[in-house]
Amino acid sequence: MKKRHFKVVGFALAVLMILSVALVGCGNVDSPVQTPAAAPDGGTADTGTAAASAAEGTWQWGDPAWEAAVRAKVEGKTFKIGFTPPAASEFYDIIMHGAYTMMNELHDRFGVNFEFEFVAPSEHDAVESQVSTIENWATKEFDAVLVCTAGDFDSMNAVYEKATAAGTAVYLFNMPAELWDVDSIKATSVISYDNARQSGYLVGQYAAEKLGGEGKILFISGNDGHWTTSRREGFMEAVSEYPGLTIVGEQRGEYVRDAGMAAAENLLQANPDVDFIYGENEEMAQGAVQAVQAMGLKMWDGNEGIIVVGADGLKSGFEQIRSGGLTATVDVGSVDQGREAIKAIFMHELLGYSIDKVINVPTILVDSENVDVPEAYVDWALATTENYK
Amino acid sequence: MKNNEMTAPLAVKAKKKIDRQLLGLLIFVIAMMVVMSFLSDSFLSVSNLTNVFRQSVFIMLLGFGMTFVLTTGGIDLSVGVMLALSGGMSGWLLSMNVNIVPAVIAGVLVGLLVGAGNGLMITKLRITPFIATLATMSIGRGVMYVWTNSIPFRNYMVGGFRFIGQGDIFGLQFPIVIAIVAFVILQFVYRCTAFGRHVTAYGSNEESARVSGINTDKLLIKVYALSGLMAAIAGITLASRLETVHPEMGKGYELDAIAAAIIGGTSLSGGKGTLVGTVLGAFIIYLISNALNLLNVDPDWETIVKGIIILIVVAVEFLSHRNKKE
């Protein structure tokens, strides 16, 4: 865990000292950190620059001999990966761009080529359409598929086993693996974050910290499903540690802005004296902010007002935090989920390293104090174009 | 009500039925207010009720268009998508620094054109309204994803545009004003114009309407274009209200709009409809949500309770009607 924290921080802040610790602490193999020098211009993922830095051996991952050995093993190979999120959305777009950054990097350094296909079902809960997508990819002899689905492990395990048996390795991303017994997961690995401990709990803690352990909370939840279950669990756990914090209302906002706003408006009518609103994603949280403002209530200014917190780590969320339209959010490590997933596939499938069943990426609670760091990381990923063939 | 309906001679029988249903709805709303006023302090306040009305405006506007469509015996499943496309067009143009007037006009045109396209498919290609608008819904949603690249349009708010969804006139929120104006105009159109009478006539008996010399193709194209226009107005208002256009904006609104019209007493099989009922229908849908939210009913139960109440409202009307017949 620790080393990945170092990775994000080291990358974004370009703090040399931390980088050196990360390198010493993690060994050569496991820490694909770019040098500070590569970070600013590598940020645009300009092929020329990236290729140049690879050639000059400035990638901070192993020594030249190791680089050469890996290159000898994978150069010229083409690896087919399918990527299927539960919906086409800004969030999954960031994860996909995170995957691009790692594929570009591996392509530049080791000469491995990727074929990458993206299919999202038209309906968020259309699990069966994702099942057929995975089956199709297995039939087309894809080497690996990256899956995130509203279907839980129990219902999806059959197709995971089937695809794996057909030679298509199944990797999951953005799935709350913490809700299931690790042994029951039939995918090769789950690259995600802990929705309870690394998202919901952080928000509860933030509430306790900002409110001094005392205040009234409104909770606007998403559609029932495994993400909501886990986030709520973490949030409730943190809140329950402070007897002064009470949840005075909870309603569903269906993960969309208009429903989130309507739920917040209705709840605020009954509880205009709340201190804190938790919207389980940023769209709902921003809807809640608009409800607060429309009712003439005061948003948090650092000392007083209503604190509104979301979760996702989208560009729009960061912009709102900057302009005071949203107090805070949880960046759930979308860029790293994409990067680590590709890296896990590369290490395990192409080089034969073992990997853990559950790989959780770092997440961070973002408010106006620290928004620069995660925003720059997401910007960098989103600006990356596909250059891995 | 009664005076207005004198001008609709074809619907004399339907009129009584509708009046009874409207009365039933009013009684339901009043009963709900009485009960709720005991259960919650904040329910019966002006600010809460205007809020509920404001929340229902978007479904109401879609419901107005839907009332015309349903009266012809058709259905329009694409209103949610037309709402998104129109709001998206205005938002997208504004984000490219286009002046607000052409941006809004372009948004309105998108709704009108897509709606007219529905009408053309239905009349010229003889595709049933359900299938034609289902296709439009699917294509339109896909266009939204491709067009936005799955990333919501945003950063398009300018002062004038903000007013559409968030401004006030004489203390009334502007979306409410839009709904009132739309209602008054459409009520006139529905009750007092040849177009409105033709819509009802066509829905009552398609063949006799055709025989009596109504250009039915033109009529239907106009009706679906009107539905598109209402969706566009709702979409542009919502784009201003939400300050962002999500590719999934308006998803599922078509079902709420249909529900609003049906609850209000408009018939799914055509021939009768009422805009007053649609106003009440849309208001009731949001009033139920609001009441359950204020009482902090477990969200898992909310949808169940909502569905049951809608069933009761419609069933009571049906049963009372049947009993009177017997």
UniProtKB/TrEMBL annotation, chain A:
Q: Which organism is it from?
A: Christensenella tenuis
| Keywords, in A-Z order | Signal
State where the protein is found: Cell envelope
Q: Which region is the signal sequence?
A: 1-22
In Swiss-Prot or TrEMBL terms, this protein is called: Sugar ABC transporter substrate-binding protein
Tell me the InterPro entries matching this sequence: Peripla_BP_I, SBP_2_dom
Q: Which family does it belong to?
A: Belongs to the bacterial solute-binding protein 2 family.
Q: Does the keyword Signal apply?
A: yes
Ranges for domain Periplasmic binding protein come to 81-346
Would I find Methyltransferase among this entry's keywords? no
Q: Where is this region: Disordered?
A: 37-56
Q: Which domain of life is it from?
A: Bacteria
